[in-house]
């Protein structure tokens, strides 16, 4: 028994294999020639149009295609899930009540969203798009996002920000429920997550973007750099990477927030390990990308105190970039950033993302905030007309707390 039991357990349980599979869920560990599988979540056609601009910025080839799963999120409550299934299967059937009108609007949006993404797929030879509608309660719809992501083996989930830009370029809240959905997804996402703050990226399908990636350090920033690196291979993208180096007061390590759970020595060692990983990844980027591509630039900025952060960001923003790609900030263990995070209006964007997205900052750039998979989810203290597409199949999900309906569209 002593000899047989270990052999049997090793044959059945494959932790190393599982670890390798999980590593593939990050963009940083995805091979350059591998297919990128992206889950784009939208609530309405306007958000779908904004998502297209992000998708178009990815360089696709026959060896490195892009597979997009466009997921429309529809809010349902009570018994309206059965109404949705009935409404989809019987287009001409007359239904009464406000619920039916809401469902009709949801179906119209789904058809519009489908047309938008299919037009994108038709123009981009090496891109494939599948459109799905997930109808569920907003309180549990993040579980549906998890399920679809795992089923489709997505590398990246992109969520729309809960604010949208008005005519004057000011971000206004469109629906506070969207923010809670984003936070729920970030808490325990099965892969890397991105939040897209859309301020407009120019004409559809005409990529000419100036992108900046602000690198401070940590796993989220390395993942954000990996996303920016992949975008930089598109001939219409000009990438600038600005590394912010911390000195003096700004370099102080935040040990108090984690010392009780991890211990002082563990926090210090982890901080040093993160710095080593940062230096290694940035060095590889400079050697492989900056040295070989004229469209990629690299620079460094020094920060010595808290007041230097907005000053450096103002200097960067004066260039007038179209898109910021930023890490959310987990794993930095930086004292001044941890303190600033407590005062942010939208902690899901991180300190730097919250500053740039603020209307007071005055930037007109869009943002893509990245949270890398594998380092624990976010903990939030405060929860402040073409031919009509016919549904292919309706698949109910198996959730105990609430009903969900998935609609796959051809």
Summary, kept brief:
The protein is α/β, with parallel strands linked by helices and 410 residues long. It contains 13 helices and 14 strands.
Structural summary, described in words:
The protein has 410 residues and is of the alpha/beta class. The chain has a single domain (22-371), classed as Rossmann fold (3-Layer(aba) Sandwich), CATH 3.40.50. It is 40% helix and 22% strand. It is built from 13 helices and 14 strands. It has helices spanning 4-12, 15-23, 45-56, 80-89, 98-123, 141-152, 176-187, 219-231, 256-262, 264-290, 308-317, 335-341, 350-357; strands spanning 36-42, 66-75, 127-136, 156-160, 163-165, 171-173, 192-197, 209-215, 237-246, 296-303, 323-327, 366-371, 391-396, 405-409. The strands form two sheets. A twelve-stranded mixed beta sheet has the order 10-9-8-11-12-7-4-1-2-3-14-13, sandwiched between helices. α6 (141-152) crosses α7 (176-187). The longest helix is centred in the last third of the chain and has 27 residues, at 264-290. It is globular. Residues 15-23, 82-98 and 382-401 have low confidence and may be disordered.
Helix/strand class: alpha/beta
Count of β-strands? 14
* Poorly predicted segments: 15-23, 82-98, 382-401
Tell me the fraction of residues in β-strands, as a range: 15-25%
Lateral strand order in the biggest sheet: 10-9-8-11-12-7-4-1-2-3-14-13
CATH top level class name: Alpha Beta
Radius of gyration: 22 Å
Q: Overall mean pLDDT score? A: 81
For the largest beta-sheet, the strand count, sense and barrel status come to:
12 strands, mixed
CATH topology: Rossmann fold
CA-based shape:
globular
Number of distinct helices: 13
